[in-house]
Amino acid sequence: MSSIPTGQFVTRSAEESFDLAYHISEAISEPAIFLLQGDLGAGKTVFAKGLGAGLDIDPAEVNSPTFTILNLHQGRMRLYHLDLYRIAGGTDEIYDLGLEEILAEPGAVVVIEWPERLGSFATPNAYRVMISDLGGNDRLIEIVHIIYGIEIFRAD
User: Fold this and answer.
1) pLDDT tens per residue, range 62-96
2) Which residue, 140, 113, 99, is CA-closest to 49?
3) Crossing angle (nearest 10°) for helices 44-54 and 14-26
4) Cα–Cα distance between 72 and 87 in angstroms, integer?
5) Rounded CA gap, 61 and 33, in Å?
6) pTM of this prediction?
7) What is the pLDDT at residue 78?
8) Considering only CA atoms, which of 46, 52, 69, 64 is closest in space to residue 109?
9) Residues of the chain above pLDDT 70, percent
10) What is the dotted CATH code of the domain comprising 7-152?
11) Are residues 144 and 151 in contact, defined by beta-carbon separation less than 8 angstroms?
């Protein structure tokens, strides 16, 4: 059973959002996929930095790959960080990125910002992380486990 918590979490600062992600990834010992959703500036990259830090990756090295689309980091597990904001959407572009091979890599953690751009590309086992701006520095972070398109919501 996965040690990744699901449910709703309210954070009061970017540091708290970072810490939440850090504690989640610190406990990861098997491959995981995170689909980060939220408006521009909601905190997706802050969350990705926290995930990286929990994998023993310097958070200063984890930046949004908006223009490169994909960044690869090596810590105690390999971290693939994708930002699909500039992808028009559709399966052909996603396959061209090599995402199918990335998701099949044993021991990898994959973080995808703007997963809405995946189109019909399926991620059979993933965690959707929806980050909502509550005003000021407050964020609502909802983590849902998705298995073959079915949302599994378990409040820990």
Assistant:
1) 998 888 889 999 999 999 999 988 887 666 777 78
2) 113
3) 40
4) 18
5) 20
6) 0.91
7) 96
8) 52
9) 92
10) 3.40.50.300
11) yes
